[in-house]
Amino acid sequence: MSTYTAHFRVWRGDTDGGDLRDYQVEVNDGEVVLDIVHRLQATQTPDLAVRWNCKAGKCGSCSAEVNGRPRLMCMTRMSVFSREETVTITPMRAFPVVRDLVTDVSFNYRKAREVPAFVPPEGVAAGEYRMQQVDVERSQEFRKCIECFLCQDTCHVVRDHEENKAAFAGPRFLMRIAELDMHPLDAAADQGLVRAASAQEDHGLGFCNITKCCTEVCPEHIHITDNALIPLKERAVDRKYDPLVWLGSRIRRR
Ligand code: SF4
Ligand code: F3S
Ligand code: FES
Question: Where is the signal peptide (predicted)?
Protein backbone atom coordinates (compact mmCIF):
# COMPACT_ATOMS: atom_id res chain seq x y z
CA MET A 1 0.00 0.00 0.00
CA SER A 2 1.38 3.41 -0.87
CA THR A 3 1.07 6.37 1.45
CA TYR A 4 1.76 10.05 0.90
CA THR A 5 1.30 13.35 2.69
CA ALA A 6 -1.42 15.58 1.24
CA HIS A 7 -1.96 19.28 1.72
CA PHE A 8 -5.49 20.00 2.95
CA ARG A 9 -7.11 23.37 3.46
CA VAL A 10 -10.26 23.26 5.57
CA TRP A 11 -12.70 26.04 6.43
CA ARG A 12 -12.90 26.50 10.21
CA GLY A 13 -15.35 28.84 11.83
CA ASP A 14 -18.91 29.42 12.92
CA THR A 15 -21.78 31.88 12.53
CA ASP A 16 -19.43 34.77 13.43
CA GLY A 17 -17.05 33.98 10.55
CA GLY A 18 -13.97 31.90 9.93
CA ASP A 19 -11.11 31.16 7.58
CA LEU A 20 -9.24 28.42 5.75
CA ARG A 21 -6.62 26.50 7.80
CA ASP A 22 -3.80 24.42 6.36
CA TYR A 23 -3.02 20.83 7.35
CA GLN A 24 -0.54 18.19 6.23
CA VAL A 25 -2.16 14.80 6.53
CA GLU A 26 -1.40 11.21 5.63
CA VAL A 27 -3.35 9.56 2.77
CA ASN A 28 -3.41 5.84 1.95
CA ASP A 29 -4.43 4.12 -1.27
CA GLY A 30 -8.18 3.77 -1.72
CA GLU A 31 -9.17 6.46 0.76
CA VAL A 32 -11.92 9.04 0.29
CA VAL A 33 -12.01 12.67 1.42
CA LEU A 34 -14.11 11.78 4.48
CA ASP A 35 -11.38 9.34 5.62
CA ILE A 36 -8.91 12.22 5.60
CA VAL A 37 -11.29 14.46 7.54
CA HIS A 38 -11.63 11.69 10.13
CA ARG A 39 -7.84 11.33 10.29
CA LEU A 40 -7.58 15.08 10.88
CA GLN A 41 -10.08 14.75 13.74
CA ALA A 42 -8.17 11.79 15.19
CA THR A 43 -4.70 13.29 14.98
CA GLN A 44 -4.76 17.09 14.75
CA THR A 45 -8.15 18.77 15.14
CA PRO A 46 -10.47 16.84 17.48
CA ASP A 47 -12.96 19.72 17.47
CA LEU A 48 -13.41 19.81 13.66
CA ALA A 49 -17.18 19.66 13.06
CA VAL A 50 -18.39 17.46 10.21
CA ARG A 51 -21.71 15.72 9.57
CA TRP A 52 -21.74 12.13 8.31
CA ASN A 53 -23.53 8.86 8.95
CA CYS A 54 -23.34 6.03 6.45
CA LYS A 55 -20.00 6.48 4.68
CA ALA A 56 -21.67 4.73 1.75
CA GLY A 57 -23.25 7.55 -0.28
CA LYS A 58 -26.73 6.78 1.02
CA CYS A 59 -27.57 9.08 3.93
CA GLY A 60 -26.84 12.40 2.21
CA SER A 61 -25.17 13.85 5.34
CA CYS A 62 -21.57 14.49 4.31
CA SER A 63 -22.26 17.13 1.64
CA ALA A 64 -19.61 19.83 1.34
CA GLU A 65 -17.62 21.59 -1.36
CA VAL A 66 -14.32 20.03 -2.39
CA ASN A 67 -12.15 22.34 -4.49
CA GLY A 68 -15.30 24.39 -5.07
CA ARG A 69 -17.47 21.55 -6.35
CA PRO A 70 -20.46 20.33 -4.31
CA ARG A 71 -19.75 16.68 -3.47
CA LEU A 72 -20.38 13.89 -0.98
CA MET A 73 -17.10 13.60 0.94
CA CYS A 74 -17.58 9.86 1.47
CA MET A 75 -17.87 9.24 -2.28
CA THR A 76 -14.98 11.44 -3.38
CA ARG A 77 -11.88 9.33 -3.85
CA MET A 78 -8.55 10.93 -3.10
CA SER A 79 -7.28 9.43 -6.36
CA VAL A 80 -9.23 12.07 -8.34
CA PHE A 81 -6.68 14.65 -7.11
CA SER A 82 -3.01 14.67 -7.91
CA ARG A 83 -0.67 14.14 -4.95
CA GLU A 84 0.69 17.68 -5.29
CA GLU A 85 -2.75 19.31 -5.40
CA THR A 86 -4.11 21.21 -2.38
CA VAL A 87 -7.50 19.81 -1.45
CA THR A 88 -9.75 22.57 -0.15
CA ILE A 89 -12.91 21.68 1.76
CA THR A 90 -15.55 24.27 2.52
CA PRO A 91 -19.12 24.01 3.82
CA MET A 92 -22.03 24.20 1.35
CA ARG A 93 -22.24 27.81 0.29
CA ALA A 94 -26.00 28.18 -0.15
CA PHE A 95 -26.82 27.40 3.49
CA PRO A 96 -25.83 29.16 6.74
CA VAL A 97 -22.84 27.70 8.55
CA VAL A 98 -23.37 26.14 11.96
CA ARG A 99 -19.70 25.25 12.56
CA ASP A 100 -16.78 24.24 10.32
CA LEU A 101 -18.19 21.92 7.63
CA VAL A 102 -21.69 21.67 9.12
CA THR A 103 -24.43 23.82 7.62
CA ASP A 104 -28.00 24.54 8.63
CA VAL A 105 -30.08 22.87 5.89
CA SER A 106 -33.47 23.63 7.45
CA PHE A 107 -34.35 25.74 4.39
CA ASN A 108 -34.87 22.42 2.60
CA TYR A 109 -37.18 21.03 5.26
CA ARG A 110 -39.30 24.19 5.08
CA LYS A 111 -39.52 23.78 1.29
CA ALA A 112 -40.45 20.10 1.68
CA ARG A 113 -43.36 21.06 3.92
CA GLU A 114 -44.66 23.52 1.31
CA VAL A 115 -45.29 20.73 -1.23
CA PRO A 116 -48.77 19.23 -0.67
CA ALA A 117 -48.65 15.47 -0.17
CA PHE A 118 -49.94 12.77 -2.54
CA VAL A 119 -53.77 12.79 -2.64
CA PRO A 120 -55.12 9.22 -2.78
CA PRO A 121 -57.78 8.53 -5.40
CA GLU A 122 -61.31 8.27 -4.05
CA GLY A 123 -62.94 4.88 -3.94
CA VAL A 124 -59.73 2.86 -4.30
CA ALA A 125 -58.63 1.07 -1.16
CA ALA A 126 -54.99 1.06 -0.10
CA GLY A 127 -53.41 -2.04 -1.60
CA GLU A 128 -55.62 -1.84 -4.68
CA TYR A 129 -53.75 0.91 -6.46
CA ARG A 130 -52.69 -0.15 -9.96
CA MET A 131 -50.20 1.65 -12.21
CA GLN A 132 -48.43 0.94 -15.48
CA GLN A 133 -44.80 -0.14 -15.03
CA VAL A 134 -43.65 2.85 -17.07
CA ASP A 135 -45.25 5.19 -14.51
CA VAL A 136 -43.66 3.28 -11.63
CA GLU A 137 -40.24 3.60 -13.24
CA ARG A 138 -40.68 7.33 -13.83
CA SER A 139 -41.32 7.94 -10.11
CA GLN A 140 -38.65 5.52 -9.03
CA GLU A 141 -35.91 7.56 -10.63
CA PHE A 142 -36.93 10.55 -8.52
CA ARG A 143 -37.31 8.42 -5.39
CA LYS A 144 -33.59 7.58 -5.52
CA CYS A 145 -32.98 11.02 -3.99
CA ILE A 146 -30.93 10.79 -0.76
CA GLU A 147 -31.63 14.42 0.20
CA CYS A 148 -28.00 15.45 0.18
CA PHE A 149 -29.13 18.91 -1.03
CA LEU A 150 -26.11 19.27 -3.32
CA CYS A 151 -28.50 20.23 -6.13
CA GLN A 152 -30.05 22.90 -3.93
CA ASP A 153 -26.56 24.15 -3.03
CA THR A 154 -25.35 24.42 -6.60
CA CYS A 155 -28.38 26.04 -8.25
CA HIS A 156 -27.42 29.60 -9.16
CA VAL A 157 -30.94 30.86 -8.39
CA VAL A 158 -30.22 30.65 -4.65
CA ARG A 159 -26.47 29.99 -4.43
CA ASP A 160 -25.58 33.67 -4.23
CA HIS A 161 -29.10 35.04 -3.96
CA GLU A 162 -30.51 34.69 -0.48
CA GLU A 163 -33.34 36.96 -1.58
CA ASN A 164 -34.68 34.30 -3.99
CA LYS A 165 -35.04 31.61 -1.35
CA ALA A 166 -38.54 32.56 -0.24
CA ALA A 167 -39.94 32.23 -3.77
CA PHE A 168 -37.94 29.24 -5.07
CA ALA A 169 -38.35 25.64 -3.96
CA GLY A 170 -35.12 24.50 -5.65
CA PRO A 171 -34.53 21.53 -7.96
CA ARG A 172 -35.06 18.85 -5.31
CA PHE A 173 -38.57 20.02 -4.47
CA LEU A 174 -39.58 21.02 -7.99
CA MET A 175 -38.64 17.44 -8.85
CA ARG A 176 -40.97 16.24 -6.07
CA ILE A 177 -43.80 18.33 -7.56
CA ALA A 178 -43.03 16.87 -11.00
CA GLU A 179 -43.16 13.36 -9.57
CA LEU A 180 -46.59 13.99 -8.08
CA ASP A 181 -47.85 15.80 -11.18
CA MET A 182 -46.90 12.80 -13.33
CA HIS A 183 -48.34 10.29 -10.85
CA PRO A 184 -51.38 8.69 -12.51
CA LEU A 185 -53.17 8.11 -9.20
CA ASP A 186 -52.62 11.50 -7.60
CA ALA A 187 -56.04 13.14 -7.20
CA ALA A 188 -54.89 16.62 -6.19
CA ALA A 189 -56.48 18.12 -9.32
CA ASP A 190 -59.90 16.91 -8.13
CA GLN A 191 -59.41 19.13 -5.11
CA GLY A 192 -58.47 22.11 -7.27
CA LEU A 193 -54.66 21.78 -6.99
CA VAL A 194 -53.06 21.77 -10.43
CA ARG A 195 -49.52 20.88 -9.44
CA ALA A 196 -47.72 22.07 -12.59
CA ALA A 197 -49.47 25.45 -12.43
CA SER A 198 -48.71 25.68 -8.71
CA ALA A 199 -45.02 24.90 -9.40
CA GLN A 200 -44.96 27.93 -11.67
CA GLU A 201 -47.03 30.26 -9.52
CA ASP A 202 -46.15 29.21 -5.95
CA HIS A 203 -42.76 27.44 -6.09
CA GLY A 204 -40.71 29.52 -8.53
CA LEU A 205 -40.39 27.10 -11.47
CA GLY A 206 -39.95 30.14 -13.74
CA PHE A 207 -36.64 30.99 -12.02
CA CYS A 208 -35.12 27.81 -13.43
CA ASN A 209 -33.45 28.49 -16.76
CA ILE A 210 -32.39 24.84 -17.16
CA THR A 211 -28.66 25.31 -16.64
CA LYS A 212 -28.52 21.65 -15.51
CA CYS A 213 -25.95 22.31 -12.77
CA CYS A 214 -28.24 20.45 -10.36
CA THR A 215 -28.14 17.36 -12.57
CA GLU A 216 -24.35 17.53 -12.86
CA VAL A 217 -23.77 17.32 -9.10
CA CYS A 218 -26.45 14.76 -8.21
CA PRO A 219 -24.65 11.74 -6.67
CA GLU A 220 -27.63 9.51 -7.57
CA HIS A 221 -27.34 10.54 -11.24
CA ILE A 222 -30.99 11.55 -11.35
CA HIS A 223 -31.82 13.41 -14.57
CA ILE A 224 -33.37 16.24 -12.58
CA THR A 225 -33.52 18.74 -15.42
CA ASP A 226 -34.39 16.51 -18.37
CA ASN A 227 -36.83 14.16 -16.65
CA ALA A 228 -38.43 16.41 -14.02
CA LEU A 229 -37.96 20.15 -14.55
CA ILE A 230 -38.33 20.42 -18.32
CA PRO A 231 -41.43 18.15 -18.44
CA LEU A 232 -42.89 20.14 -15.53
CA LYS A 233 -42.35 23.38 -17.43
CA GLU A 234 -44.00 21.85 -20.50
CA ARG A 235 -46.97 20.70 -18.45
CA ALA A 236 -47.34 24.14 -16.86
CA VAL A 237 -47.28 25.84 -20.28
CA ASP A 238 -49.65 23.26 -21.81
CA ARG A 239 -52.20 23.98 -19.12
CA LYS A 240 -51.86 27.71 -19.52
CA TYR A 241 -52.16 27.88 -23.30
CA ASP A 242 -54.28 24.85 -24.21
CA PRO A 243 -57.70 26.36 -25.14
CA LEU A 244 -59.59 23.20 -24.05
CA VAL A 245 -57.91 23.20 -20.63
CA TRP A 246 -58.63 26.93 -20.34
CA LEU A 247 -62.32 26.40 -21.26
CA GLY A 248 -62.59 23.49 -18.82
CA SER A 249 -61.19 25.55 -15.97
CA ARG A 250 -63.66 28.38 -16.75
CA ILE A 251 -66.59 25.97 -16.76
CA ARG A 252 -65.45 24.37 -13.48
CA ARG A 253 -65.28 27.78 -11.82
CA ARG A 254 -69.00 28.43 -12.48
FE1 SF4 B 1 -29.05 15.09 -3.71
FE2 SF4 B 1 -29.75 14.39 -6.21
FE3 SF4 B 1 -31.56 14.39 -4.25
FE4 SF4 B 1 -30.63 16.69 -5.17
S5 SF4 B 1 -31.86 15.20 -6.31
S6 SF4 B 1 -30.94 16.17 -3.03
S7 SF4 B 1 -28.49 16.16 -5.61
S8 SF4 B 1 -29.75 13.08 -4.40
FE1 F3S C 1 -31.17 25.49 -11.06
FE2 F3S C 1 -31.18 23.04 -12.01
FE3 F3S C 1 -32.76 24.84 -13.03
S4 F3S C 1 -29.42 24.21 -11.39
S5 F3S C 1 -31.60 26.70 -12.87
S6 F3S C 1 -32.86 24.11 -10.98
S7 F3S C 1 -31.73 23.24 -14.11
FE1 FES D 1 -23.70 9.14 4.17
FE2 FES D 1 -21.69 10.38 2.95
S3 FES D 1 -21.76 9.73 5.00
S4 FES D 1 -23.68 9.99 2.17
Answer: none
Helix (H/G/I), strand (E/B), else coil: 81: coil
CA 77 vs CA 71, 74, 84: distances in Å: 11, 8, 15
Instruction: Give dist(CA 119, CA 208) in Å, integer.
Output: 26
Q: Where are the beta strands (DSSP E) in the chain?
A: 3-14, 17-28, 63-66, 69-72, 86-90, 97-99, 102-103
Decide whether any atom of ligand 3 lies within 6 Å of the 74 Cβ: yes
Question: CA-based diameter of the chain, in Å?
Answer: 76
201: how many CB neighbours lie within 10 A of its CB? 12
Q: To the nearest 5 percent, what fractions of the chain are helix, strand and coil?
A: 45, 15, 40
- Report the first-to-last Cα separation within the chain, whole angstroms: 76
Question: Phi/psi at 94 (nearest 5 deg)?
Answer: -80, -10
b/e per residue 93-104 (b: at least 16 CB within 10 A): bbbebebbbbbe
Fill in the DSSP letter of residue 77: B
This prediction's pTM: 0.93
In this structure, which ligand is nearest to the CA of 50?
Answer: 3
**Ligand 1 pocket: which residues have CB below 6 Å?**
145-151, 172, 217-220, 222, 224
Instruction: With CA atoms as reference, report the closest residue to 132 among 140, 143, 124.
Output: 140
Among 239, 152, 149, which Cα is nearest to 204's? 152
ipTM score for this prediction? 0.99
Q: What does the DSSP 8-state code read for residue 203?
A: S
pLDDT in tens, 215-247: 999 999 999 999 999 999 999 987 766 666 656
